[in-house]
Structure formats: C-alpha cells, structure tokens
Amino acid sequence: MSSSLSILRVLVWAAVLGICNGGVTSQFTRKSGKPKVMPFGSDVFAIPPGYNAPQQIGFGSCFQCHVPRALTPAEEDVLEAFAPAVPVLVVHITQGDDVGEGVIVMWITQDEPGSSTVLYGTTEDDLDRRSTDGSFRTYRFFNYTSGYIHHCHLRNLKYNTKYYYMVGIGLTTRMFCFITPPEVGLDVPYTFGLIGDLGQSYDSNVTLSQYEANGKGQTLLMVGDLSYADEHPYHDNRRWDTFGRFIERNIAYQPWIWAAGNHEIDFAPEIGETVPFKPYKHRYRTPYRVSHSTSPLWYSIKRASAYIIVLSSYSAYGKYTPQFKWLEAEFPKVNRSETPWLIVMLHSPWYNSYNYHYMEGESMRVMFESWFVKYKVDVVFAGHVHAYERSYRVSNIAYNVVNGKCTPVFDESAPVYITIGDGGNLEGLATNMTFPQPNYSAFREASFGYAMFEIKNRTHAYYEWHRNQDSVAVVADSMVFYNRYWYPIHES
Ligand SMILES: *[C@@H]1O[C@H](CO)[C@@H](O)[C@H](O)[C@H]1NC(C)=O
Ligand SMILES: *[C@@H]1O[C@H](CO)[C@@H](O)[C@H](O)[C@H]1NC(C)=O
Ligand SMILES: *[C@@H]1O[C@H](CO)[C@@H](O)[C@H](O)[C@H]1NC(C)=O
Ligand SMILES: *[C@@H]1O[C@H](CO)[C@@H](O)[C@H](O)[C@H]1NC(C)=O
Ligand SMILES: *[C@@H]1O[C@H](CO)[C@@H](O)[C@H](O)[C@H]1NC(C)=O
Ligand SMILES: *[C@@H]1O[C@H](CO)[C@@H](O)[C@H](O)[C@H]1NC(C)=O
Ligand SMILES: [Fe+2]
C-alpha cells in the first residue's frame, strides 16, 4: 500500500475518532474490597487422597474424565516391557514440541519421589505408551523444602486427538486427559483464553471458575504473576504448592502458556535467596530450546494458526543481550503463510493509562516496538496492572531524541495492546486512572475478569473480555481483529 494512502487513512480515522480524545473509560463500578487470600484449608487446595498421590498436575485440554484406578494387566505389561524408570536429569525437547505434537507434564509428589513415568494413550482403558525421559528434582528456599517436582515429555502425539494420561505409577495413580491441537496451518480455528495476575484469592477462584464455565478456551495464555507466594512472610513457598493445587483442575486438562511476571522473581537477599526465578523455574517448565532460546523465560511456540512469542519483562533486553539477540532472530522466522496470527505475551504493559506501574514497560517498548510494527504483530497481551485496558493500533517509533516526535500515533501495522492483569491477585484492583484518557487507550475498566481470543481463519479473530462477576454470556468489551498480514484494514 502506498504511504500517501496510509497517511490519508490515518487522517480519516483521526477525524472519525476525534484526534485528541481517548476511547471509553467504563463507568461500571465493581463492588470490591481488597482480595482475600483463600486460607490453607480451602477446598481448592485439598491434597488428593492416597499415599504420595501426585498433585499440582500441570499442563494439558478437555473435560473432567477420571478418578484413580488400578493398573490393568495390559498396562502392567507395558511397564514390564520397559526398564524401570531411571531419572534423567538433562532433558532435550524434540522439535515436535513447538508445533503442538508434544506436551510437557509436570507434577509433584510429597512423601517420596515415586515414579517419574507417565502412561498415556488414546483409550482410557488402554494406556499403551510410556514416557521415557521423566525426572524429578527438589529445591530449597529459605527454610522451605519442596516436594519432588517431576516432569516429562510426551512426544509425537497425533493432532486433534484426545489422550488420557496417568501419573503416580506404582503408588497412588491419578488419570487426566487432554486434547492435542490441530496441525499448524492457515485457516485453523482455535481459541486461546487469557488470564493475568491470577493469585489465589477468592476473586482468583471466581475468575478461574468463570473461565471454565465459559468453556471456549482450548489453551490458556497466562501473562504472568502466578501464585503471589512472595507476598507471604519469607515468600512462604507453601503458597506455590497451594497455587499449583488450585489451578490443577484446569491445567491438568488444558495447556497453559506462561510468561514470567515480577512475582515470579522471588529475589529475597534479606533471607539469603539471591537466585532470581528459583521457585518458578523449578516448577514451571517451558519448551524454550525448541525455539533456540537459551532461557526458559523467553521462547516461542506455534499452535494451530498462531505463532506465540513470550518475552520476559524482568530479564535483560538491551542491545546485545541474549533476549535481544534471540528476538532479533525470531521475528524473521515467522511465516505468516503457516501461522497467520502473530501474538506476543509479556508481563509489563507498554501502553497503560492507569496510575499503577505507569511507564514501567517503557524501556522495553523503546527497544522492541519498531520490530513489532515491522513484523506486524497482531496483538500484545500483558498483565501487571490489576485492571483491564485495550489500546487502539498505535505506535511510537518515530522519535530520535531531537525530532520531538514522541507521541503515539495511529498505525495500521501496529498491534493492539491488551492489559489483562485482572485475574484476582492479592493486592486489589487498580482503580486510579490517568485523566484525560490518553488517545492511545480505546477502552479501560477496573474489574476482575478474563478474555477469549477466538481465531476463525487467516483473516478474522473474535476477541471478548468478560468480568468475573457477570454471567459468562455478558461481554464487557469486544473487538473483531483483522489479521495484520492477510487483511490489514482498519477494524471499525
Ligand atoms: C520458617 O521460618 C519462619 C520464621 O522463622 C517460621 O515461622 C516457619 O515456621 C519456618 N518454617 C519451617 C518449615 O521451618
Ligand atoms: C472455588 O470455586 C469452586 C468452583 O466454582 C467452588 O466449588 C469452590 O467452593 C470455591 N472455593 C473457594 C474457597 O472459594
Ligand atoms: C511458509 O509456509 C508455507 C506454508 O507452509 C510454505 O509453502 C512456504 O515455503 C514457507 N515459506 C518459507 C520462506 O519458508
Ligand atoms: C494523540 O495526541 C497527540 C497530541 O495531540 C497527537 O500528536 C497524536 O497524533 C495523537 N495520537 C493518536 C494516536 O491519536
Ligand atoms: C491517583 O494517582 C495519582 C498519581 O500517582 C495521585 O496523585 C493521586 O493521589 C491518586 N489518587 C488516589 C485517589 O489515590
Ligand atoms: C473468515 O471468518 C470470518 C468470520 O467468521 C468470515 O466472515 C469470513 O468470510 C471468513 N473468511 C474466509 C476466507 O473464510
Ligand atoms: Fe506484576
């Protein structure tokens, strides 16, 4: 498209939107108070029955499918056919994992290591395959010692297939199931759920319950700030365990894709804990090697029709740093004829108009924003600010220190920025906004909730944000996305 045409288009929108005014500040007020953390004895934290029962099962999509049961003779045969599981401490992830043919299963046993093997198969009564690379490890944090944290890979799975899997082999077993995604491709419909800053408050439980009741989400994109264990005395790591048990009811059936938030850092030199991200990295694995990343904190995956890039707001991103060099090499790899939708997840938002964390995302924006525009990222999901906000398609990349061009402008090649840090947290809603609403901000509201990004085909995706206190049918904000590569016209 010619640049004069795009200038004209910008002027037309400007006229339509009224250039100096931002969008809508919702007048909806939530009955709120500070979120209350669910106490240790809460039902959502219940430890599963049975000796050494696996808990905090992580990853994997479908509906409730099972109760514990004994191994069948056929499954015993499968186990016998293999050598006993020997923990392997170095794990390589197959190429398959980045396109949805593989999953990582994680779980914790408390009393003893038990088995790191997962039995799985496509029939509930015949789990004919067995993972071979399982391992476990533990960590200490101040005076806390973790349980045995296991993980393993299930590889070369068939697309669009329901798998059953069993953990806890040999002692108390538990069975779950998930559905693999469709093969990566151009017009593959797929729905991503979105939750940020979840925590383990009563509000967190309502958000997760509403997300589940909505039912459309096939994979959850979690934009960071998971357990908020660091807000408890001495970063009480038992709160990482309760968080794991809380979310198991969802994440054992449907994969969650993580970005690291500031509450994952757990940097506490006052109690001798100086290794950033220690509990998080021990507990939550990512398939980062597949995308040639050198850190689990930034990586990419392809899933259905989406290419998802996950960045770390709390790792170095200046020029020459590992994250910078990785991202520089990463964008050219995206093939929009294969994965039309380009999504970025990061924790600290670049376009935020609340008086919380204001401009904290600015330094990363300065480093990376021109790439986002050049490679036509469709949407950026962030959290951190405990509220909801959606931007127009804007960019702010013309500034060169002396030219004075330092305000965001409408830009059809730019992503929409969505802040969805409203999962439930522990600190309360961000209610204090900047006024007037800046002209990059399209819609903002201080309520808890979650969203759905429903990809229809290469050109269209439907997006909806829901408050957690409404019935699931109520849509509090929505937008039809037109793909920036295949259909880069203004979404009116
Ligand atoms: C850890 O230390 C804190 C503070 O001294 C104490 O309250 C807590 O009971 C200790 N926990 C364990 C597992 O020792
Ligand atoms: C959490 O939500 C679930 C499902 O809605 C409900 O059964 C459970 O009682 C809730 N627990 C707490 C502590 O709010
Ligand atoms: C992009 O993907 C399409 C569809 O898979 C393929 O035909 C094409 O060769 C790829 N382009 C590049 C540059 O790899
Ligand atoms: C926002 O307002 C500033 C100042 O009036 C203007 O320079 C800029 O182009 C506007 N940006 C958008 C996205 O409307
Ligand atoms: C809102 O934030 C502004 C800027 O930080 C501050 O000056 C003001 O006091 C805050 N208002 C309230 C009600 O907290
Ligand atoms: C893509 O999906 C949208 C929304 O469902 C539909 O209107 C459009 O016709 C579809 N485009 C193609 C090429 O199928
Ligand atoms: Fe945060």
Automatic annotation (TrEMBL):
It catalyses: a phosphate monoester + H2O = an alcohol + phosphate. Residues 91-170 form the Purple acid phosphatase N-terminal domain. Residues 1-26 form the signal peptide. InterPro entries: Calcineurin-like_PHP (IPR004843), Metallo-depent_PP-like (IPR029052), MPP_PAP (IPR041792), PAPs-like (IPR039331), PAPs_C (IPR025733), PAPs_N (IPR015914), Purple_acid_Pase-like_N (IPR008963). Keywords: Glycoprotein, Hydrolase, Iron, Metal-binding, Signal, Zinc. One of its GO terms (biological process) is cellular response to phosphate starvation. The keyword Ribosomal protein does not apply. One of its GO terms (molecular function) is metal ion binding. Gene3D superfamilies: 3.60.21.10, Purple acid phosphatase-like, N-terminal. Residues 191-388 form the Calcineurin-like phosphoesterase domain. CDD domains: MPP_PAPs (cd00839). Its EC number is 3.1.3.2. Pfam families: Metallophos, Metallophos_C, Pur_ac_phosph_N. One of its GO terms (cellular component) is plant-type cell wall. Transmembrane segments: none annotated. Residues 414-474 form the Purple acid phosphatase C-terminal domain. It comes from the Eukaryota. Belongs to the metallophosphoesterase superfamily. Purple acid phosphatase family. This is Purple acid phosphatase. The lineage of its organism: Eukaryota, Viridiplantae, Streptophyta, Embryophyta, Tracheophyta.
